[in-house]
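Deviations from the work plan: none for this task. Representative record:
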Amino acid sequence: MNNLLHAIVARLNALTAKGPLRRLQPVTEAMDEALLGTDKTNKVAPYLSDRMDVKRMMSLVIIGLVPSALAGIYFYGWYVAAMIATSYAVGGMVEVAFAMARRKPIHEGFLVTGLIFPLVLPPTTPLWIVAVGIFFGTFFGKEVFGGTGRNIFNPALVGRLFISLAFPSYFATMWGKMHWGGAGGFVKWTVDATTQATPLIDFKGSQLISTDPLSLLVGHAPGCVGEIFRIGILLGGLFVVVTRAGDWRVPVSYLGSVALSALVLHGIMPERVAPVWFQLLSGGLMFGAFFMANDPVTSPYTFTGRWVYGIMLGILTVLIRALSGLPESVMFAILLMNAVTPLIDSAVVNISYRRATTKVRRLAA
Amino acid sequence: MRFRHYAGQPGNETEVAGLPRRVVVPLLQGYGVPLEPLVQEGDPVCAGQIIGREDSAVSSPLHATINGRVAEITKLQFMGRETPAVVIEGDGTDSWSRLDGASPDWQGLSPDSLADLLYRSGVTGLAREGIPTRYRSAVIGPDSVRHVIVTQIGADVFKPNPAALLGDGALPAFVTGMAILERILPGACFHIAVSDEDSALIRRLSQALAGNPKAAVHALEPRYPQEFSEMLVRSVLREDFPFGFSAANIGVVVMDAQAVLAAQAAVVEGRPVIERVIALAGPGFTHPGHVRVRVGTPIEQVLEGQLQVGELKQRIVLDSILSGPAVDDLSRPIDRTVTQLIALPDDSRRLPFAFARPGLHNESFSRSFVPAWLPVKKVANTNRHGEERPCIQCGWCARACPVRIIPHLICRQGRLAVDETLVRYNIFNCIDCNICSLVCPSKIALAAKIADAKNKLLGVGCDNSSCIVPKFDLKGIEEYKGVKSIR
């Protein structure tokens, strides 16, 4: 088995070592690294390295997303799998093209982006729109900023924002009637594209709550592919936080802040602001808090900054849901806070380090 | 980080190594400046005879460590600088010359003659920044010493077994050594820092030192880098540390238990520092344990027959696999500050699907590997376990950093410009523990980059002394400038 792997990789490497296929080197290199692991050793102290690498970190997030993706297939049929495949194929192509043009290794970040993106779409989005969205998201959301680690906005959300503005009809009506009971969507291709409103749209329209907490938790209420099975999101999110692939501060502060501001505002204007449990369990909040707001690249790196970021996210989410014409707001809140992330970080850094130096100066004077 | 359950920890037995035929004594050992040799080629020497001594510069005397004849006096690349070294061919006899004035009835000796004995025996060079005496054996004088910290915590991945040094038989000697140090440093309080896991040792030490009002035993969590002076001052004394300076500058002397035992041996038995107990640790040894060797024995001779033989080469590291230097030239001699030799398999074998494995025996800051949940034996090797990637600001380096700086911020800023901004980001608080490089999932050499930037800043005369000096009552800074710390 081992020898076979080595042989395959050696053959691939030889194929792209020279000649017209040389441009494909990043691809074979990535396969080489993923299949066989590294042969590099530490030449300077520390001579011990953490077993974790970015590949595994991304894999952990993907494992955290698996319950949501499986639930998506169960509720909406195998068409969801086709959406995921499309997203991976197009997103991967953009990533590979940029790696080839830059002559840099392929970075693993697109593995998460490519899975998250279809999970935040309505279940009947046409495949060509999925392709356009992930293309736009990876291209303009990530690569033009310089690739993994340098993007300001969450690439999946950039893609979703683009298609929700370019093709608004799919977000308004195409929620479909979900499968429920028995083998569910595991034996179906897709859902009937009948018009059905999400609980948040219902509330916006009639100020009535059309569902109950249990249905929201197990996913018996329409919504985007990955956001409805909230028990799975909680378990997956917990997995990510416990394994330290994601920070716990952002989800805790985000959800806590939504709960608090909903509590206060619901008391002030109950007809516009939904109660706490409904705010927490509806829409993309759970999914956004654990898997999108928590993206390390686009959230603050200072720990104080992460608290500030999460708290402001929560307030924004509740305010946009209540006061704007939009039923759902998690995407806008996160993108908006992504934009101010550098500001939060530099403010926190400046304040915390200025405090240290002024104290010294006072002592010196 | 706390490192546990590593395979290859040394047992509690101590072997006595055979007498080396030939030793190399670099004239720079312990704390201080290089010395001029007092002997010439062809001179007969005996073990314990002083062959290097300089009373006018910060240093401690050095001894011939075997009986024999000076074969040559050479220059050696040692501790990163060219150092004169005395090579001695042994005659195979085992005796050593006793220090004048040593006596089992040491309580009758004056503090001055005790200090003289410690100086002549070389014990004063064993503390990290020297033990102060009326000689210039440290940058500060004996009256400036407020605290002495004796550390035997073992917070590193591999650590000497405390039972090997401080077994039942050694405790009376340890207590006597403490008493001797108390006599020569009358103004100091004594603190013994041990791991809180070793309750038996804590109990025995507390009982042995029960009648001593100036000594206290501290049980500390063995969390790396607890054994760094910077951390000890914080956790034992609860004081701020003047980062960028040394513990001696605030009147703290840090040493290990072996220095205390050596003090007793010098004063009571008249034995100069010609031997050292070193731990042989790591999965690369067939029988990890301790060995008592003469100072100056080449490392290759210590390793002879001890290493695992296999397809992998062993990397030999001094003292710590996290912060210590690797030994590339195995003819390098053991000096009297070495506490352990670690052999680590240089594992360049590729592991198919490494990222998807349960990682049964590997260290990780993440809790996604088996050792985070089950007490399985972990195996250390030098493999990087991944490819270098751009920083994704996951914040692990900042979470692991013991001095609360943000390593990735400093590295990013340092790539733009090495200037005062880095000083503002507290780059000089970095204590070179290298834990940031260890945990980084993107495999970025953060610690090396920070160390580089620090050197560049110091090179252009930029340091944090203007922030530190007004805050602390620093002692011996003028002298400190000329002397390079060996650690």
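Chain A has two domains: 2-36, 55-350.
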